[in-house]
Amino acid sequence: MSKVPGWLGRVGAGLTRMGQRLEERRAASESGDEPVGESAAVPESVPAPPTYAPAVAARPDPVAAIPWGMRVAAEAGWRLLVLAGTLWVLMKVISEVQLVVLAFVAALLITALLQPTVARLRGMGLPRGLATALTAITGFVIMGLVGWFVVWQVMDNLGDISDRVRDGIDELKAWLLDSPFHVTEQQINDIAKNLSDTIGTNTEEITTAGLQGVTVMVEILTGILLTMFSTLFLLYDGKKVWTWWLKLVPAQARPGVAGAGPRAWRTLTAYVRGTVIVALIDAIFIGLGIYFLDVPLAVPLGVFIFLFSFIPLVGAVVSGALAVIVALVTQGVFTALMVLLVVLAVQQIEGHVLQPFILGRAVRVHPLAVVLAVASGGLVAGIGGAVVAVPLVAVTNTVVGYLRAYSQEQALRAAPAHGATDSAVAGLPSAAPPPASPKGDE
User: Fold this and answer.
1) Average model confidence (pLDDT) for the chain?
2) What is the pLDDT of residue 383?
3) Out of 222-236, 246-260, 369-383, which region has the weakest mean confidence (pLDDT)?
4) According to the UniProt entry, which residue ranges have a biased composition of type Pro residues (predicted)?
5) What angle do CA 9, 14, 16 make, to 5 degrees?
6) How far apart are alpha carbons 354 and 106 in whole angstroms?
7) Which pLDDT belongs to residue 82?
């Protein structure tokens, strides 16, 4: 029995030492020191692989595996697809409400022409409502009188024109028989017979076209009424309309748009004024040439030349060709050649003197852009699209140029430490939005 306490003491001492070693190991693992005792047999580091073992490269990130040029093309591609889809939807919407859009654009053009008169009348002390009413009524009355005068002239000279056309056809027939083209009378009669048969067999189509013409006339009258009402409200409340539209623009882009608006309006006003002056000069001088050459319908042809002058390039060709054709069938080949010379001379003066001097640099658009814009506008919306295409391009050019300068100025002001000093910022054209509204009526 005397040996039991000694054995228990040795067991207790052994447990104590074991607990101490466990405490030492835990303390060593927490402090990062090398373990003691039995742990000394653990190797200090993992041995390196042998030199003959093949190197296994890690798999790259899929984004890094795609070439940089392809990534740029993909980024640009999906943005272009989104932009093209947006434009397509916008064009579909515009085509559905084409009459309303063209009426509003026509109202903008008329407003740009009449607004300076409203501003002058208000400067003379007239109230805004009275000045707007006087200007709008006077402008629409003048346009109506011009249209009535053209129709009256055409109807009054229709009988004389028919006789002259028949005489001209007979003269043309005689000239063809005596010409070196070896045209026989039988061939001329066959052409006339085929033309008559074509008209007779297509009577139904002609009737349908006449009914469609009635629908077109209704649409034209509706467009005229919409244009008149839109013009009245734009002349009277142009500033309020512009302010309301600015509220729809995001707040971050609002200062830039507010500065671009007045510049776009000045460009549109300059374009309309210059085009009206140039068209009026063309109509007067070509009309006088036609009148002195004794070509009938000189005044209606002058009005047509004035209206077609609003379609750049194409309008001058069409109106000039119409004048030459009327001179050919009524007065003969020599008079037609003289009319052609008059038209070409006036158009050359217009292209090289009048347009650069009157329009100036405010609405300068490259001729290629003019041709493409007129062609695109004509394909999308006919004659109305061709008329509004060039002023739309001119306004867009002005807005884009201003926004580019505005963004550059804002970037320099936000980061002056990157080599941009105050003097460099001050050297840029000022892009701060002016307080004036684009309508300028207040």
Assistant:
1) 76
2) 75
3) 369-383
4) 431-442
5) 95
6) 24
7) 93
Q: Can you tell me whether residue 184 is helix, strand or coil?
A: coil
**CA 389 – CA 407 distance, rounded (Å):** 27
pLDDT-derived band of residue 86, with 50, 70 and 90 as boundaries? very high
Please give the pLDDT value at position 21. Answer: 79
54 to each of 46, 49, 63, 125, 404, how far by Cα in Å?
18, 10, 26, 95, 56
Euclidean distance between CA atoms 207 and 199, whole angstroms: 11
- 246 is written with which tokens? 């600015």
Query: Rounded to whole angstroms, how far apart are CA atoms 165 and 171?
Result: 10
Residue 311: strand, helix, or coil? coil
The backbone region for 297, taken as left when phi is positive above 0, alpha when psi lies in -120 to 50, beta otherwise, is left
In this prediction, residue 50 has a pLDDT band, given cuts at 50, 70 and 90, of low
Residues 143-156: tens digit of each pLDDT:
888 778 777 776 77
Q: Give Cβ neighbours of residue 380 (< 8 Å, ≥ 6 apart).
A: 91, 94, 95
Q: How confident is the model at residue 359 (pLDDT cuts 50, 70, 90)?
A: low
CA–CA separation, 20 and 37 (whole Å): 12
With 80 as the cut, is the pLDDT of residue 191 above it?
Answer: no
The torsion defined by the Cα of 199, 202, 207 and 208, in degrees rounded to 10, comes to: -140
Which pTM value belongs to this model?
A: 0.65
Residue recorded with tokens 């001088």: 285
**Of 401, 385, 384, 394, whose CA–CA distance to 364 is shortest?**
394
What token pair was written down for 18?
């074991």
* Low-confidence winner among 32-41, 256-265, 284-293, 325-334 (lowest mean pLDDT): 32-41
Domain ranges of the chain: 253-314+347-416
